[in-house]
Amino acid sequence: MPKSRTQTWYRQYVNRMRALANVKNAMAVLQWDQETYLPPKGAQARGQQLTTLAELAHHMATSSALGRLLQSLLDSSDLPETARRNVELSWEDYQKMKKYPTSLVKALTEASNRCFTDWIQARKENRFSLYQPALERMITLKLQEADILGYEALPYDALLDQHEKKLTTSTVETIFQPLQKAIVDLLAQIQQKPQPEDDFLYQYAPKQHQWDLGIYLLQSIGFDFEAGRQDLSEHPFTTSFHPHDVRITTRIHEHHLPTMIWSCIHEGGHALYEQGLPVEEYGLPAGQANSLVIHESQSRLWENCIGRSLSFWQFHYLELQKRFPEIFSTIPLQQFYRAINKVQPSLIRTEADELTYHLHIIIRYEIEKKLINERLPVKSIPELWNALYADWLQVVVPDDLHGVLQDVHWSHGSIGYFPTYTLGSVLAAQWWDVLQQSIPDLHQQMAKGNTQPILDWLRKHIHAYGSLFHTQELCQRVTGKPLDIAPFLQYVKEKFSQIYGLTN
Amino acid sequence: MPKSRTQTWYRQYVNRMRALANVKNAMAVLQWDQETYLPPKGAQARGQQLTTLAELAHHMATSSALGRLLQSLLDSSDLPETARRNVELSWEDYQKMKKYPTSLVKALTEASNRCFTDWIQARKENRFSLYQPALERMITLKLQEADILGYEALPYDALLDQHEKKLTTSTVETIFQPLQKAIVDLLAQIQQKPQPEDDFLYQYAPKQHQWDLGIYLLQSIGFDFEAGRQDLSEHPFTTSFHPHDVRITTRIHEHHLPTMIWSCIHEGGHALYEQGLPVEEYGLPAGQANSLVIHESQSRLWENCIGRSLSFWQFHYLELQKRFPEIFSTIPLQQFYRAINKVQPSLIRTEADELTYHLHIIIRYEIEKKLINERLPVKSIPELWNALYADWLQVVVPDDLHGVLQDVHWSHGSIGYFPTYTLGSVLAAQWWDVLQQSIPDLHQQMAKGNTQPILDWLRKHIHAYGSLFHTQELCQRVTGKPLDIAPFLQYVKEKFSQIYGLTN
């Protein structure tokens, strides 16, 4: 049977998209190496190699030939549903990529290099003012970018959309406003109660034993070591070159075992998602990980809902005691469980507990929003930052290093990125809600060390779809509701009421 | 001062060549990862990623824009000498690349995949006949390739030229014929003498201690760990992404320490060369490692002339005894020196000693030459192979696995590659000869652990030139002679006469 014109075009489209994915994944390999094994003097050459590949990828992603092919396919009436959706989503990406003038791309790259260098220097000297001019330049460019990309209501919407398609300030507001209030309330109640004793978590735990524990935990949650690996890096991350080659990294503090445990489970959650994407759709939207919010909903689900639950540790705590008897042999499971869920306001986002973490995020969101929508001057950031930390977290920011200089994101031009962390947790709670209903013996299974039913459910309902559906669509399909704060609020209230003995 | 047209063209040429180098080096990163860290299921996707990059590189290397630029530059009269030579060499490469029809490139890739698969299977079943049809196809294609590339005297010349520019069968003959005779003679004398006792070299040596020794040895010969690293792989190799990022690998047998030691020094020799290339010429012929023969002359010089010399171990043997007292504390240096230079004919090329190694190579050369120049049928290879091993090495090849199926090279279509190994050793002996004359206290320095004068000499006389000169030109410039067998013959005769107490 001869192939139809549409089939031929679709095959050509698939080949082009796969070649593009191959170049992007080659970049990911170079970046992974950069974070794990690159010798120090090799950094500059690596940067240039990445620039060349980025230019090639940009060229391939915006070629007129691809544009014509996409248009022909959009005009075809005989595309099957998934294929049509792939083409539509690729067309969206194509149009977006075409909007960027070369001059802006170049200016953003330069601003980002400058910002990063100045950020490093400002951290060294612990002075925000050294970073301020570079950040001002970056914000100016991001405003231009928002104008070029376009938006309906507010310029910040255009930047949110870059990190999470279709996300708007208005949606974020409906989640963050009640969330901020609820957390501050819950925190006030918690702070009237005695704190769990957690000194034992800071005892010495040898590097190799920690590493082995990490591998054990990853295996237990279903990470496929035939299709991926773990290495060490300064900042833990997940990257994927293909569903059959997913790399995660962890870090080890010999006097703080929890750092490794929950970074491992967190990245493991990201990795399970990447390993679960449909291989046959490689290079196409249906084969790509969905948005940052969906990705983070996977990592947070595994890290927090599962990895900080009593059921999970009912099985694994014996193993932990066996591997680190000096630390845990005299600590009962309940005490361990309370300690790993201790809530305590602090200065540094990445060290925050499951609850106050979101106040760190909402503070950053408030500042970003004002920078973009209200043209808040960059020089006012530290004052606003410190005021919000004092107000919501009741901590005094002693200096810029422990305040406004702690995150790298803005240096990269990632404005509109932070909200996806919290939205990911919110969505994780929605999945968790449905999961507990769908698998009635879920906690009993977890207490036997079996999280496979959870992974199976995620594979079937989320991973299998790649990025065919926008977050809100996927959320609606799976939970029957849009993004919703209620399950998260219920989850944290129940959990911390039980741990701290609060009366509702 | 405004730039001349030539300067502008040269800048454009440099940019194109650097972008091409960046893509090729990205491929090298992906290949390095493939051999060191790639999870098993990731192999197929990696192959596809490499194919995409290879296509992009081929496209860049053969673009008409580059061709026009090169022609304009060749017609310019105001290019400085090195720049002119860069352009001339790039033009040679360009013309060669342009000769390949896409159909042949594709057929060679397919034949190579088929050959490799069948070679694996043939090894598994220990039967050459399973590999024969695929190899026949490969040889047919290599004959076509030779015709397309063109040659003056013999088709094998075209294939030699691919691995070593300007090398011809006739040149190889003038080296290999006397070499084969001399080695067979020397071997006969050696075999009448008692063999050094070397059982102690097969004692248990723990992996980590071996690894640490390897790092120590690499540091001592001048490998810059800020501009490179070592990892483990099944087959040791060197790869470079830039002179500031050179990667080597080693392998460790816990019951054979020498495997690690001399693979480490051998790859270290390759790596010192790559680290010594001029950074400012990155991506251009003047910044690229020269031919395989030059490369091998570096690794063999370090591995054998230096790494198996008495002077070298006069310093390092104490360290070895300290690190492995169970093995070496009762073994005097002289006994160690004799043991690591034991000559014994054997079946496997990669396990051969410094002397008989070259008989393995010349056997492969004889077969290749006959396959291409005389159309020897592929099915006759095992018979010829086994006869030459019996005749020259006096060993009986028990089966194909220990004979004709041991090397992967032909599967890759690498015909004309093997001779470069031996020519590298021959050239190493020429450098060694000049080195010993140029640095009168060379052996005294080595006995103090100082090989820096050797590295300085190599950097100045060889590394600094990249591939500006063909092997014969460089050899003539540095030694005042063309490729010459005499220094190698003198070196092995002196060394083994001393070790075995032969009377000349």
Question: Care to describe what's here?
Answer:
The structure is a homodimer of 504-residue chains. Chain A is mainly alpha-helical and 504 residues long. Chain A has a domain at 5-99. Helices cover 63% and strands 3% of the residues of chain A. Chain A contains 21 helices and three strands. In chain A, strands 1-3-2 form a three-stranded mixed β-sheet, sandwiched between helices. In chain A, helix 6 (132-149) crosses helix 7 (155-163), helix 8 (169-190) runs antiparallel to helix 15 (357-373) and helix 8 packs parallel to helix 21 (486-500).
Summary?
Two copies of one chain form a homodimer. Chain A is mostly helical and 504 residues long. Chain A has helices at residues 5-36, 43-61, 64-74, 81-99, 102-125, 132-149, 155-163, 169-190, 207-221, 257-275, 292-306, 310-323, 325-328, 333-339, 357-373, 381-393, 418-438, 442-447, 452-461, 471-479, 486-500, and strands at 228-232, 238-242, 245-250.
Provide the β-strand percentage band of chain A.
Answer: under 5%
- Widest sheet, order of strands of chain A: 1-3-2
Structure annotation, total helices of chain A? 21
Query: Structural class of the helix and strand makeup of chain A?
Result: mainly alpha
Helical residue percent band of chain A: 55-70%
Order of helices and strands of chain A: HHHHHHHHHEEEHHHHHHHHHHHH
Please write out the topology.
2 copies of one chain form a homodimer.
Chain A: H1 5-36, H2 43-61, H3 64-74, H4 81-99, H5 102-125, H6 132-149, H7 155-163, H8 169-190, H9 207-221, E1 228-232, E2 238-242, E3 245-250, H10 257-275, H11 292-306, H12 310-323, H13 325-328, H14 333-339, H15 357-373, H16 381-393, H17 418-438, H18 442-447, H19 452-461, H20 471-479, H21 486-500
Parallel strand pairs in A: 1-3
Antiparallel strand pairs in A: 2-3
Helix pairs in contact in A: 1-2, 1-3, 3-4, 5-6, 6-7, 8-15, 8-21, 9-10, 10-11, 11-17, 15-16, 15-17, 17-21
